[in-house]
Specification:
Layout (H helix, E strand, L loop, with lengths): L13 H10 L6 H12 L1 H4 L4 H8 L3 H10 L5 H13 L5 H13 L3 H21 L3 H13 L2 E5 L3 H13 L6 E4 L6 H4 L7 E6 L6 H12 L3 E6 L12 E4 L12 H17 L3 H15 L8
Parallel strand pairs: 1-2, 1-3, 3-4, 4-5
Helix pairs in contact: 2-5, 4-5, 8-13, 9-13, 10-13
Keywords: DNA-binding, Transcription, Transcription regulation
InterPro entries: Homeodomain-like_sf (IPR009057), HTH_RpiR (IPR000281), RpiR-like (IPR047640), RpiR-like_SIS (IPR035472), SIS_dom (IPR001347), SIS_dom_sf (IPR046348), WH-like_DNA-bd_sf (IPR036388)
Protein name: MurR/RpiR family transcriptional regulator
């Protein structure tokens, strides 16, 4: 990713650890070699299992894993396991493995560390996302939305609520923005009558949703202006888009973070309002006055 997850020079990747372990096999005792063989055959277990759990699975004593770790330069099994856990935090492994890692933190009494990691990653994601763009790029995208005949905001899965929240806020000021897919529909059908003069805001992160990629491809063929939000410059919805924003989505959680995505959409909405015609302010005032009149808001005491 662009300016995201920059490798730590002190970070020892699991692939390097496994390579060193494989090279040391011949020098290990039979029991330690048995532990090493298990690690080489089941590397995903290392980051999510306690020493007792992995020793039981390998049918050796826990201390055997300590000796194995020391044989390749680590002080103990916890140090040996750290690169594998870091790989999970970086989002390289599968969602189920990340979920198992979260549960392993709870079993090990490390939830305070998880809390700190969650807070740090949320703040870092927002900082990296905004550092990767600027007000000029944001204004260019907002200009496209303001000038559009109609703007479609596409998000599925976790991004469905993000797309609908953006549309909900926009509806206070303008009525040319809608979230897709509509209930009971699919995105490519919702874009059937869209064309030049329209805008598609699309968002997806790894693993990229096929329906979003297909809708973006269709939008390009039909001449829409595409604004893409994704986690990599190599994302299929970013390549070839008119406006693209790279959102940092790293998290200790088992699913990509939406924090920076939401923050960027809020910034884009602010630029849209700032860039729109003066009557937009009147629309927002009427919207809120109507809600107060209808008793939707709790009266202030």
């Amino acid at each position: 990713m662009n300016n995201i997850n920059v490798p730590n020079p002190e970070y020892s990747a699991p692939t390097k650890v496994l390579k060193n372990l494989s090279a040391a096999l011949e020098e290990l005792t039979p029991e330690t070699r048995k532990a090493a063989a298990y690690v080489l055959e089941n590397p995903n277990d290392v980051g999510v299992s306690s020493i007792r759990e992995i020793a039981e699975a390998a049918r050796v004593k826990p201390n055997t894993f300590v000796r194995m770790a020391r044989s390749v330069g680590f002080e103990g099994y916890d140090d040996f396991r750290e690169p594998f856990r870091e790989e999970i935090r970086r989002g390289v492994v599968s969602f189920p493995d990340r979920a198992r890692w979260l549960q392993s933190l709870a079993r090990g009494g490390e939830l305070a560390r998880l809390y700190a990691d969650m807070a740090a990653s949320a703040i870092r994601n927002i900082e990296e996302t905004f550092a990767a763009t600027d007000d000029t790029a944001m204004k260019a995208a907002a200009d496209a939305v303001v000038a559009s005949r109609r703007t479609y905001v596409l998000g599925v899965g976790v991004n469905s609520s993000n797309a609908r929240n953006f549309t909900y806020l926009a509806d206070m000021a303008v009525d040319t923005i809608e979230a897709i897919p509509r209930p009971g529909s699919v995105a490519i059908d919702d874009l059937a009558r869209a064309g030049p003069g329209d805008v598609l805001i699309a968002m997806t992160c790894k693993p990229y949703r096929s329906e979003v990629v297909e809708a973006v491809s269709l939008a390009r063929r039909q001449g829409l202006t595409v604004i893409a939000l994704s986690d990599s410059p190599a994302s299929p919805i970013v390549i070839g888009s008119d406006h693209a924003f790279i959102v940092a989505a790293d998290t200790p959680q088992f699913f990509p973070s939406s924090v920076s995505n939401i923050a960027l959409l809020e910034a884009l909405m602010a630029f849209v309002i700032a860039d729109a015609a003066p009557e937009v302010i009147s629309n927002i005032e009427r919207f809120h006055e109507r809600r107060h009149t209808l008793g939707i808001y709790q009266p202030e005491e």
